Amino acid sequence: MRLIAAALFAALLLFMPHLGHAQGQTVTQILSENRALVEKASRTTIGPVIEALASSGDPQAAIVLAAWAEKGLGIRKADGVFFLIEVEGNGYKLMSLEGQAAGNAPKAEIVELKPNAGVRGLIATALVQFQLSDPDQLKREAALVSIARDPSAEHLTPLRASIEGETDPAILAQKTRLERLLTLRFDPDSAARVAAIESFSGDLGLDLRAAINPLLVTTRTAIPAQMQANGNIAAEIRPGRDISVEDAYAILSAQGLAPARLTRAELKSALAANIVDGKVAGIPVAELNTPAARDRAYSALEAAGSVPAAATDDEVAAAVAAHRFLDTYAEADSAVTSAATGLLKGIEVKLGAMQTADLVLDALSLASIYFLAAIGLAITFGVMRVINMAHGEFIMMGAYTGYVVQLFVPNYTVSLILALPLAFAVTFAAGVLMERLVIRHLYKRPLETLLATFGISIALQQMAKNIFGTQARPLTSPAWLDGALTFNDVVSISYIRIAIFVLALVFLLFFLWLMRRTRLGLEVRAVTQNPSMAASMGINPDRINMLTFGLGSGIAGIAGVAIGLFAKVTSELGSDYIVQSFMTVVVGGVGNIWGTLAGALMIGTLQKGIEWFNPSNTLAAQTYMILFIILFIQFRPRGIIALKGRAAGD
User: Fold this and answer.
1) How far is Cα 81 from Cα 28, in angstroms, rounded to an integer?
2) pTM surpassing 0.90?
3) SS3 (DSSP) at 361
C-alpha cells in the first residue's frame, strides 16, 4: 500500500506543473499535454484537466468543452492533433480548436471522444461559469435554473464572479439569492454560512427550505455508554421512551455492535435440535417451561459453540442498556446547524400562520360560492316558504346560457358581459313560468311542492342532456381571470374565486337595496309578514309571489354563469349545489339575507376545516359537515339569525 501511495503521489507531482501553468496556456496546449487522460477520461481522473480548460482564459474554452460534451471533439491518429469534428458523409468535417476550417478526414483517421455521463457532468459544471456571464439573457437564466436544480460547491465561485457584471435587475436578484443559498450550504467559512442563513429571516421560499433541510439531516447511531460522543449531536435518544427497545437493538445489530435478534421460532428450533438424553445444555427439558430458562439454555449452547451467536431477551436488554443512542447531524458545524434550526423554527411558525391564512381564504372563497348559489333560494324558500328542488337546475340553465353565448361571441370578456344579464333573463322567465303553472297552485302545501319541483328538476336535467349531451361543456373565463393572486409560496387565491367573491358581495348589496329602498322590496316584505293585510292595502300577493320567484330564479342563473367558470358544465351541475344551498339558508335563518350570509360562512369554514384534517377524502368532509349541521339545528332550529315578527311564527 505504501508503494502504491508513493507512486500516486509521484504521479500527482509530475502532473501538477502542467496544471500550474494552465492559466497562461491555450486550450490546444492543455489538451495536447494531457492527451492520455483525455482519451481515457473518467470522472475520477479528468477533473483537473477540465478545471484547467475552464480557468485558462482562452475564449475557445467554452466552445471546446461544449463540443467535447456533445461528442464533437476528436483526435487525429497520425499526429495526435485535436479537432472540432462534425459528421459529414462517411467522414468528419474538421475545424481547428481556434475555429479555423481544417478540411475533411475519413472516420478511420479520427478518434472520436465519447465522454461518459460522469465526465459530461464535470463538463457541464465547468461550463456554468461561461453561461452565467453569457450575453444571451436566456442562457444566463438557463444556467441559474441548472444550478438551482443540482447545486454543488463548484458552482459557488463562478456564480459569485458573475454577480458584479450582471446588468439585468431580475437576473441579478436571482443570482444574489442563489449565491446566498449556495453559501449557506457549501462555503468553507462558518461565519459566512451563518450570516447567509440569518439573511433569510422571515423568508418562506421553497428553495430556502430545500437548502436548509440537508443541513439538518440526522443519522441515528449507537456508542458504548462510557464513550464520549463525537460529532455534531442533535439529540440523545432514550430507548423505551423515544424509541422501543427492539428498535434500539436493531440499530446495534445494524452497526455490528451486537448479534442478530433471536426470534421465538428460532429459539424453539435450536433447543429442539440440541436435546440430548432429555436435556438441553444440561438442563432437563421439563424445566424449560419459562422464557428465562429457555434463554439460559440457549446461552449455554451459544457458549459451547453449538448454535450461532444470537441475542436472547435478557441479552437484548443488557446490550441496549450498555449503549447510548444519538441523532447526529450530517453537518459537522454546530454553529451552522444551530442557525439553521432557529431559522427553520421561525419558518414553521410563519408557515403555520400562512397556512391558516390560506385556509381562511379558501373558506371565504367557498362561502362566497355557497352564498351566490343560495341567495336565490333565500328568496324563494326563505321569503315565499316554497321548497324548490329545481333551484339547482336554474343554476345549471345559467351555466349553459353562458356556454351558448360563447358559441356565438368568441371574445370571452364580451361573452361574459352578455351572458350575465341573458342568464338572468332566461332563468327569470323560466322561474315565472314555473310559478304560474305549478307553484301558485301549491302554496302552503310543502310536501306537494317538494314532489312537484323534484319532478321538474329531473325533467330539466333530462332536457339538458337531450340538448347538450352528457359531456361536460367548456365555459371559458377571460384571460384576465386566469392565474391567481399570489402573496407567497403558501398563500394564493385564483382570480376567478376573487371575481365570485366580488359578485357575491354585489348581490348582497343589491338584495339589501332592493328589499329596503324599493317599492318592490316593501311589497315583498309586506306580503311575507301578512299576505291578507298586504292585499287589503292594494298589493297583489299573486303578482309579488310571481316576481319574487322569478327574481330568485334569475339570481340562480347568474350564479350558474359564475360557477360554470371553474366547475364542469353538465346537466348535474345544479345538483352539486342544491344540498349546500338549502343548508346555507336553513342554518343561517330562514327569511334573512344576513342569516344566509352567516350560514354560507359557517358551512364554507366548516367544510374547509374538516378537509384540512382529512384532505384526501372530501366526501367524508361533507358527511361530517351534514352531521354537524343536524346537531346544530337540534339546538338552534331557527338558524343563526332567527326571523322576528309575525313571519317568524309561520
Assistant:
1) 9
2) no
3) helix
